[in-house]
Amino acid sequence: MTLSRAVVASAAAITLSTTLAVTGLTTGPMAGAAAGRDHGGPGHADRHDTVRFQTFNASLNRARAGELVEDLSTPDDPQASAVAEIIQRTRPDVLLLNEFDYVPGRAAVDLFRDNYLEVGHHGARPIHYPYAFVAPSNTGVPSGHDLDNNGTVGGGNDAFGFGEFEGQYGMVVLSKHPIATHRVRTFQTFLWKDLPGALLPDDPATAAPADWYTPAELADVRLSSKSHWDVPVKIGRETVHFLVSHPTPPTFDGAEDRNGRRNHDEIRFWADYASGRDYMYDDSGRRGGLARGEPFVIAGDQNSDPADGDSVDGAIQQLLDHRRIMDPLPTSRGAVEAAARQGGANAAHESDPRYDTADFSDFPAPGNLRADYVLPSRGLRVRDAGVFWPVPSDPLSRLTGEFPFPSSDHRTVWVELRL
C-alpha cells in the first residue's frame, strides 16, 4: 500500500481501519462488454456524481483458522484473484464482502487490498479502498449449549453462528469514502428472545410451543448468525447508513426449522431498525433503531428468495414491501441463460430468473435463487442497478463460470445512487 492505515478499536471490541481519502472512478457490470474493458453500466464510467453500493458473497472463507491469511499473503491465489478482478470490473464505491473470514488485527483485509485489489488483473484497473470496517462474527463462537439437540455439545451447529472456528464466514466493509467510526453500531450479542414476537423454533416432539431451546439456552442464544452492522459512510455532506448482515441459510435443520425461523428474524431486524423501533440494543448498550429521515442502504446475502427456496414465507418481503425501502430490481442476462440451460429445479421456479444472484445446485434443489440484495431507502435516487452475471459468450464469464466456481457461487449485486 502507498497510503498509511490506522486501526481504531472501540469499546465493543470491534476493529476499524482507516486512511486518508482517495477518489476513484466508478464503473459497473453490463452483460456483453468486451474483455479488458470496465464491465460498466452506460454512462457511469468516470462519473463523480454517483455512488455505487455493492454486496458480494465472495466465498473467501477457508476450512481452518489462519488459512485465509496464508492464501492472501502472496498474489497467487486464483480464487482471490478472480474475486478481485470482479470487484475491479464492477468498481463499487462502498462494498460489503460476505464470507470473508474475520481475523483480529485486520491482517486478512490488508493482505486482500495489498496483494489483490490494488494489483490489476487481466487488464482491469487496480482499485483502492482506504477505509475498511471489520468486527467479530458469531460464527464458530462456542455457546456451551447443545443447540441442535443431538445430545452433545460442541462443533459448528452448537456455536452462536455456524462455523468450525471463530470468525469463519465473517464479513468486511470496504469504502472509498470515510467511515464515521465513532457512530458505527454492531449487534453481535443481541439476543433472539428479545426480538418482539420472535419466531423461536418449536420441538415437534412436545406439546409445548416454541420449546426447542431451554430457558438457559434462550438466555444466551443470539439473533445474528454473524452480526448486524450499521456502518455510517460520509459521502460529501451526506451520511448514508450501510446496514449489512448475512442471515443464516434457512436449511440444514429439521422439522423445528430453527435456521429458517432465524433467517426470517434476522431479516426482520433490519425492517424494524429502519422503522425506528426502540427494542434493539447494540453491543455498547445503546438502544433504539435508526432515526427518522436518516438515509440508508441495506446490503447482504439475505439467503431468501421472494418465492422459491426454503426460507419462511414472506421473509424477504419484510424488506421488499417495507414503506421506507426501495427495491431497484437488479437483473442480468447471464442469470436468465443459466436457469434455462441448467434446468432442474429452475424449471419449477416462480421467481423471474433475471433477478437471480446465486448459482445453487439444480438437482434436486434449490436451483438458482435471488439471495443477495442492495436496498436503498426511499428518498435516495437510484440511477442504475445490476448483477454481474455475464452470459457464456462474454469473455468475462471466466470469472463466474459454473461449479467448481472460479470465484463464488454468488454473483455481486450493485445499485448506483445519485446523492
Automatic annotation (TrEMBL):
Keyword Signal in record: yes
Region (Disordered) residue spans: 342-361
One Pfam family cited in the UniProt record for this chain: Exo_endo_phos
Stored InterPro entries: Endo/exonu/phosph_ase_sf, Endo/exonuclease/phosphatase
Residues making up the signal peptide according to the UniProt record: 1-21
Coiled-coil zones: none
Chain ranges of the Endonuclease/exonuclease/phosphatase domain: 74-410
Domain of life: Bacteria
Cited Gene3D superfamilies: Endonuclease/exonuclease/phosphatase
GO molecular function list: endonuclease activity; exonuclease activity
Keywords: Endonuclease, Exonuclease, Hydrolase, Nuclease, Signal
Stored SUPFAM superfamilies: DNase I-like
Protein known as: Endonuclease/Exonuclease/phosphatase family protein
Lineage per the UniProt record: Bacteria, Bacillati, Actinomycetota, Actinomycetes, Propionibacteriales
